[in-house]
Amino acid sequence: MITISLCMIVKNEERVLKRCLDSVRDLVDEIIIVDNGSEDETPQIAEMLCQKYEKVRYERINVRGVGAAFRRGVELSHGDVVGYMDIDLSTNIKHLGEAIHLFEIQPQIEYINGSRFARESDTKGRKWYRRITSQGLLILLKLFLRMKSTDAICGFTFVRRQTALSLIEGCSQDNGWFYMIEFLLRAEKRGVKILDYPVEWQEDYNTTVKVFKTICNYLVQIARLFNEFYIKKHI
Predict the structure, then answer these.
(1) Is residue 108 classed exposed, middle or buried when 0-12, 13-18 and 19+ CB atoms within 10 A define those classes?
(2) pLDDT tens, position by position, 50-62
(3) What is the pTM of this model?
């Protein structure tokens, strides 16, 4: 059987950390809590969980951002497959078990990318302006960067560890959310076998994502990747 390392990327998650970990701990072999700037009781809760469960470890990094935390989580992992789910469990937890099973029975699959926008997906509670910005991002990614996947950043990503390490080596050092999009796009460009996986997904109304700031950053990053992929030919 393959072993699974789950990265739990946290920042001020005292409200949900224990609940999320208790939901997934029996499904995976290793849980790495990577903290990118918590100012609440998250560190204390994480340390308590480390003491309670041997498979759990906690590391605090000195920079903020999902990209930086994901990179560190992969580096610290030991499983055959490594990945992350949003800490709020917006993606139905049943898909974690399904993904593990798919990696076991289909060795050709290297990467499972959760999708809120595949035909079979079931997305609930998405605010109208978040839906518009998400669809707009997809249009830009498909138009300028020729993305094939139906979702760029669902918050459900699992990759065979050696593939993940290779992709990290080729990616930028961007620390934010766009790093996960770059990670996916480079996988596509390299011919990694990706399963675009429809999920059941529920909006978290307590999200701290700053929409306008995020959109501006994404536009800059899309221009950067266009230059790298089609002018510099760096994939």
Answers:
(1) exposed
(2) 999 999 999 999 9
(3) 0.93
